[in-house]
Every structure is written in structure tokens, then in C-alpha cells.
Write a structure and sequence with these properties.
Blueprint (H helix, E strand, L loop, with lengths): L11 H21 L16 H7 L16 E2 L4 H11 L7 E7 L1 E2 L11 E2 L4 H21 L6 E9 L7 H14 L1 E12 L6 H9 L4 E7 L3 H7 L5 H13 L4 E8 L6 H14 L3 E6 L21 H17 L3 E4 L2 E3 L4 H7 L4 E3 L2 E3 L6 E4 L4 E4 L2 E5 L3 H9 L5 E6 L2 H16 L1 E3 H8 L3 H4 L1 H6 L1 H5 L3 E3 L3 E4 L7 H5 L4 H6 L10
Parallel strand pairs: 2-5, 2-14, 3-4, 5-6, 6-7, 7-8, 8-9
Antiparallel strand pairs: 1-17, 9-11, 10-11, 12-13, 15-16, 16-17, 18-20, 19-20
Helix pairs in contact: 1-10, 4-5, 9-10
Length: 503
């Protein structure tokens, strides 16, 4: 998106200055861990438009490696069953993380690329919950005893989970608690469409045990909201956030998107100011990827109304500046958190993790996905469910798990996953640690990848030393592109254009 406009006058010095703030902010924590800071002194004074054009390329977001597009057919979930049975015999298995995909929305948001079902017929929820019950019943024999059915985390995503009314959410939580054992203090989170909840609904969510909420905001400008077909006044969200705090929820996240139609740097500045006046615990700042050929709702967006490349950069620049001034820590890529938030704490401790749900704080936790299109990660096995309701229902009617495809990681996949996640989560790679863990000579094994990485080195985006690699403060903007150097599947197929750009 940015690289396509070679004449754009980009505020590159401002971007560099705002990224400086990120590393100034983290300087104390790195010193506490006795980590060297000298690598960050060898930086260019600015990011040129040429640099943006060269490295702002399409690439995966690496919520997994290999990425989901590399999964292979797995009829009836044989690999998933094998992984669950193996886990059921492990004495070291930690409590599960559950993800439940609830695909329903009453209206379409034109920017959306999620797997969703647009309907006003709430009767469809009854069918869906019945089939979720069947899915969990089919899984139960493979999960093991009560210890191995323990759950430490639950996340409801979609779609709009709050499409379900209070009774339907109660029913869903009942069937989950019947099949699984939620440990004391389990973290329960839910994605909320602000247009679908009020104070009474928040009270009910708290009663059900939810402690974390995420509001889809995207933008507060009325003109932008009209353009993307998602109108929700600032005052409505502000009031809901006040209620969430009063009711004792532990964490609030707000999602924003820059690059939407009719956005300007000035309008987005006002949105950021309003967001900061609410002061959520976490913020997610995503770049809009306009891919109408892949996502039909985006065809309703007028391409002429999309902001220019230099305007998008200005939005990113001013948003990060504002977050840093307000005291947020930079977690990675597009996520920010207040210093006392759990994500910020584990980032400082070097324990940040990443999976299909994004950044998280719990290492070694298996993820079990339920519902249409959901993805699981059990040990070294990835698995994805069928993507349409008719197919999902038909598989369960036939008495087998509704799995479409998956992948069992080999030794090379596991190694490259460790390398890519080290870069994505901590911005550094220790050659000795990776070498000892996987019994390889890193520089020899990854000679090709390190050669590809040299163009990033020459631009000061990553610093290589005898000890390993360190992403520079400027390089964080391009960490996805750097991770691509280690992606064997991507480099073999040269199919970058299926992905959004890194900025």
C-alpha cells in the first residue's frame, strides 16, 4: 500500500522519531535484564521513501508458522485426534486455551475479512449451539481425564459473539463447563460489538465469568463510519467502558484501523485523542488491507475514497507518537499496552508468545478451536475446521469432527517457528540458544536466510553480531518482512501477493 506511491512525500523523520520513543520507553527494562543497548546506536537518521517502497511488501502476519495457507487436507481430523490423544497421556500438559468462533453479525462492515454469517435470524444460533455441543461431545473421548480437560483461557470471537443474547451466551457457557473444567482464575475474554450491548448485558457477561473485553472501534469519525457501514457514536463506547470498569472487568482492549475510506490524518488524530481519553489497557492498531478480489464486502468501498500512502504513514506516525506520550508500551507489530498490563509485563520479561489469537502471555499452552473455521494448535499439530456452516453441520451429522485441513510440523518447521516467533515477539534471535535447542549450527543452517537478511542489515533495520540478530528500533516496522527471510514455504512458492503489506 505504501510502496505503490513513489511520489508520496512521507514524513519519514517523524516516523523515526516516534519509533525512538518506543526504545526509550523500553530502555529501563532492557537494562534490568542486562541486555546490551549498543546495537541501537548505529541507526540511520531517517527512513527514506525509497526504504518504504523497498520493504513495505505483502507478507504473512505469522500468527503461526507454517502459515495456515500451507495446511493440507485432513479428513475427519485424524491428525488432531492423534495430537489430542498424545496430550491426554502427558503428565506435563498445561490447562487448555479454548477459542470459540461465533460467526453471526446482524450487518456487514465493509472492511471486514473475517469468516462471518450476516443474518437477523437469531434462530440460527439455536442450531449452531446444538452443533457446538456435538463437536465438544465428539472431542471429549480424545481429551483424556479431568486434568487434561482443564481450561485456563477462553476467548469468544467472530463474527460478533454479542450477537448471541443473554440466554444463548448462558447456554454456550453451560455446555463448555459441562465438557471442560475451568480452573480457578481462568481468563475469559470476549469480542464485543458496542452496538449490541448495554449495561445489563455487561452485568450478565461479568456474571458468566468474563474478565476481559475487546471493543471493535476502528474509527470514531461519523463520515468514516458511514463509509464502512459501522456507525457507533463515541459517547456510546465511552459509556460502555465506564460500565466495564465499574463492574470490575480486569482488562479492556480497543481495536483501531488506519487507512479506511474518508480517513484523513486530522480525522484520525481526533479518533486517537478520543481513544486515549478512555485509556484502555490495550490497543490494537491495524492497517486496512484493501483486497476486494478476496473479500466481497470490500467491493462496496470506493477505492477513490481510500487515503493516499503518505496520509496512511502520517496516521501511523501520529498514533504511535500519541500512544507513547500517553505511557503505552509497544508490544510488537500493531499492539500496545499500559506498563502494568500482563502483555507489557511478559514482553519485558522476554516471555511474550504469539499464536492464532495474536500476542499472548502463556508459554506452552495448547489452543483448541471450536466452531466453524476455528484453528487449533495442539503440540506440533495445526488443525482448521470447515469454513461454511453447511459443511460444518454435515460433518457433525455424519458423526466425525468437522476438520478440513491441518499440518503436523516436522523438525525444520519447529526450528523455523522458533526463529520467526523470536523475531516477532522479542525482536532478537540468540544463535547459541536456538542452536543448542535444535542441535544445529545456526549460521550454517540458515546461510540462505541470513544472506537474504543482508539487505535489511545494510539499511540498519536489523543488526547482526556474533551473538545473533537484533531488530533495530526502525526495523520493527518491517519485522514481518524480515521473518519472511526464514519462511521456507514462502520463498519456495513466491506467492507474496496473497497477503497484506507489512505497513
Amino acid at each position: 500500500m505504501l510502496g505503490g506511491d513513489t511520489t508520496a512525500r512521507i514524513r519519514v523523520v517523524d516516523i523515526f522519531q516516534c519509533v525512538n520513543l518506543i526504545w526509550v520507553k523500553h530502555g529501563s527494562s532492557r537494562e534490568e535484564e542486562n541486555e546490551p543497548m549498543n546495537a541501537y546506536s548505529t541507526m540511520n537518521d531517517e527512513i527514506s521513501p525509497r526504504l518504504m517502497q523497498r520493504f513495505d511488501i505483502p507478507g504473512p502476519r505469522y500468527t503461526s508458522y507454517p502459515t495456515a495457507d500451507r495446511f493440507l487436507p485432513d479428513a475427519q481430523g485424524e491428525h488432531l485426534i492423534s495430537a489430542l490423544r498424545s496430550r491426554a497421556t502427558s503428565a506435563e500438559a498445561m490447562p487448555l486455551s479454548l477459542y470459540v468462533h461465533l460467526p453471526f453479525c446482524e450487518s456487514v462492515c465493509y472492511y471486514c475479512a473475517c469468516n462471518k454469517v450476516i443474518t437477523k435470524d437469531h434462530g440460527k444460533v439455536d442450531d449452531y449451539l446444538r452443533y457446538l455441543d456435538r463437536e465438544t461431545a465428539l472431542l471429549q473421548p480424545h481429551l483424556g481425564d479431568a486434568h487434561h480437560r482443564q481450561v485456563g483461557q477462553l476467548h469468544l470471537g467472530g463474527g460478533s459473539p454479542t450477537f448471541l443474547d443473554d440466554g444463548e451466551l448462558t447456554r454456550l457457557m453451560g455446555l463448555l463447563r459441562e465438557r471442560f473444567h475451568f480452573v480457578e482464575g481462568a481468563e475469559l475474554s470476549i469480542e464485543i460489538d458496542p452496538r449490541t450491548v448495554n449495561t445489563e448485558r455487561l452485568v450478565h457477561l461479568r456474571h458468566l465469568g468474563f474478565s476481559r473485553v475487546s471493543f471493535g472501534v476502528q474509527d470514531f469519525d461519523p463520515d468514516v463510519q458511514q463509509a464502512v457501514h459501522r456507525v457507533q457514536p463515541f459517547e456510546q463506547v465511552e459509556a460502555l467502558v465506564r460500565d466495564v470498569r465499574r463492574l470490575g472487568f480486569e482488562s479492556i482492549n480497543l481495536d483501531l484501523i488506519y487507512g479506511l475510506p474518508r480517513q484523513t490524518s486530522e480525522s484520525f488524530r481526533r479518533t486517537v485523542e478520543r481513544v486515549l481519553s478512555i485509556e484502555p489497557d490495550r490497543l490494537a492498531l491495524y492497517a486496512y488491507a484493501h483486497l476486494p478480489a478476496r473479500f466481497k464486502p470490500q467491493r462496496r468501498i470506493e477505492a477513490a475514497e481510500l487515503p493516499r500512502a503518505d496520509d496512511k504513514v502520517a496516521m501511523l506516525d501520529q498514533a504511535i507518537r500519541a500512544f507513547m506520550r500517553h505511557g503505552y508500551d509497544y508490544i510488537g507489530m500493531d499492539h500496545f499496552a499500559l506498563p502494568d498490563d500482563q502483555l507489557a509485563q511478559v514482553k519485558r520479561q522476554g516471555r511474550l508468545q504469539r499464536n492464532f489469537q495474536g500476542y499472548h502471555a502463556h508459554a506452552g499452552v495448547d489452543l483448541l478451536g471450536l466452531g466453524v473455521s476455528s484453528i487449533s494448535q495442539i503440540g506440533v499439530v495445526y488443525s482448521q475446521s470447515l469454513k461454511t456452516l453447511p459443511d460444518y453441520y454435515a460433518a457433525l451429522d455424519a458423526g466425525h469432527l468437522p476438520v478440513e485441513r491441518g499440518l503436523t510440523l516436522d523438525d525444520d518447521d519447529r526450528l523455523r517457528r522458533d526463529v520467526i516467533m523470536a523475531l516477532m515477539c522479542q525482536g532478537r534471535l540468540n544463535f547459541e540458544q536456538i542452536g543448542q535447542r535444535h542441535r544445529i549450527d545456526v549460521e550454517h543452517y540458515f546461510a540462505d536466510a541470513l544472506a537474504r537478511l543482508q539487505e535489511f542489515e545494510r539499511e540498519g533495520l536489523v543488526i547482526r553480531s556474533w551473538a545473533g540478530l537484533e531488530v533495530s528500533r526502525t526495523g520493527w516496522f518491517f519485522v514481518r518482512a524480515m521473518a519472511m527471510c526464514f519462511d521456507k514455504h514462502l520463498n519456495l512458492h513466491h506467492d507474496h501477493q496473497r497477503f497484506s503489506k507489512v505497513l
